Amino acid sequence: MKSLYRRQFTMMAGMIFLSFLLLGGAFAGLSYQYVMADKRQTMENNASHIASFTSAYLSTLGSSVQEGAYQLYVSSLSSISGSTIILAENNGEIAFAVSAASQGTNSLLVGNIPADVIEAATGTEGYARVTDLGGLVAAKSYVVATPILQRSRITGQTYLRGVVFVVNESSSLTQLWRDFASIFILAAGIVFLLASALSSITSLRLTKPLKDMADAARRFGRGEFDVRVEGCENRRDEVGELAESFNAMADSLAKSEHQRSEFIANVSHELKTPMTTIAGFADGILDGTVPPEKEIAALKTISSETRRLSRLVRRMLDLSRLQSGENITAQERFDVSELLLRVLVSLEGKINGRNLDVATQLPEEPVTVWGDPDAITQVCYNLLDNAIKFADPGSTLGLAIQIKGEKALVSLSDTGETIPPQELAQIFDRFHKTDRSRSEDRDGVGLGLYIVKAIIDNHKETISVTSEDRVTTFTFTLTLA
Fold first, then answer.
1. Least C-beta-crowded within 10 Å: which of 1, 285, 358, 453?
2. What is the C-alpha to C-alpha distance for residues 391 and 389, in angstroms, rounded to an integer?
3. Nearest 10 degrees: Cα torsion 425, 427, 428, 429
4. pLDDT tens per residue, range 193-217
């Protein structure tokens, strides 16, 4: 398996190398053309100057190119320009030749310039090319030629007097270009090494948190829920955001695992209590431990515990459907005021049994909302049943509906013992029961409010609770239709 680090580093290094290759090629081509064009212009100027000087020298003084003064002058030009200068007759015979190194005479080169070279050099297109002049000079020499033209004193016509050749070895012409190229290659190599090192560090910085996350995920699979990705707390890029999200997910999984373990423990406890009671009384009746006159009371206890066990199983089934979303049907329009009154009527017997009064603050007009009426009925039933259960005998229950913006706020309140603040944060947890619930309401299983919260969450609504001055109020929202 190819690692992301290796692929990232290879891609970045390859892009840097390709960029330098293209830049180097462009630089080499342009610099070579510039050097060659500049050198050619210089050689053409020198050749033209020598041709003009030679023509004037022969016309004015009528002397020969073999004169010492002429040769000294041309030798000086050869030394200054670093070029080999050749003067040839029209037939190609070399009349005079000198190089910058030898300061020599016409004995430097022996032979004739080829006729085709003379013909090309005296043409109208000029002569500048790489050649060895028929073997007279070193191979790969750059040669520029200019014809020597002289005007006849008698006829006034211009005629060809000879040809000037200026010769430079290719190695000397390209030396500057090679120096430029060497400097560029050295600089490019240093920059490439630095860029590669930086790319390696960047790739490692990018991939290390990903490796840590993969390792943490594997450890999660083995049940180690305390693992977190560290070292990314100060990062403000996408990797830091991913690490933060991963740790948040890890916290959520750890919390879920803790809740799962707690849920299993609570279910076991809630199932064990009624089953132990049922088994104890049943065995007492069977083995005669329970006297005949107390069998009826024992059977009533068995029946009560059986119904309690049935309620627990039913609540757990409801909870399972809630968590899967199966009980939330398509959204419907319904009047929540009418629904709340129906729930109130269904619990009239319990209300009268505790001598409770009911104070309602409901709008006169229907309050039409969106939702699942059966699920909201269960919410209202659980909240009102809870309020009846914990209200002081003879106190007043409160039912109210308020309209705020696009929401309907449904509130149910009771007057009784105030819930401690530390209990409010846990009141919607599974199997959570306050101390008063455990002492006064043995039938409760601690799932009613959790089911209420799950239904409201499935509706994408909110529910809150306040408990102050012996008044406890549950308020949930519904979206107006």
1. 1
2. 6
3. 90
4. 887 787 778 777 777 777 888 888 8
Residue ending a domain, among 146, 178, 210, is 178
Final residue in a domain of this structure, among 159, 178, 197: 178
CB count within 10 Å of CB 247 equals 18
Instruction: For helices 373-390 and 336-346, give the axis angle rounded to 10 degrees.
Output: 50
The pLDDT tens digits for 37-82 are: 887 888 888 888 888 888 888 777 555 666 677 788 888 888 888 8
* pLDDT-based confidence at residue 324 (cuts at 50, 70, 90): low
- Tell me what pLDDT residue 439 has: 36
Closest by CA to 429, choosing from 279, 268, 263, 314, is 263
Q: How much of the chain, in percent, has pLDDT values that exceed 90?
A: 19
| Chain centroid to CA 326 | 37
Residue in the block written with tokens 């024992």: 298
Sorted by sequence, the CB contacts under 8 Å of residue 244 that are 6+ apart come out as 232
Domain span at residue 386 reads 329-479
Residue 66 lies inside a defined structural domain of this protein? yes
The tokens of 291 are what?
């006297």
Residue 137 sits at φ, ψ, to 5 deg, of -125, 175
Angle ∠(90,143,132) on CA atoms, nearest 5: 85
404: three-class secondary structure by DSSP: strand
Residue 235, judged by CB atoms within 10 A of its CB (0-12, 13-18, 19+), counts as middle
Residue 260 lies in a domain: no
Question: What are the beta bridge partners of residue 130?
Answer: 142
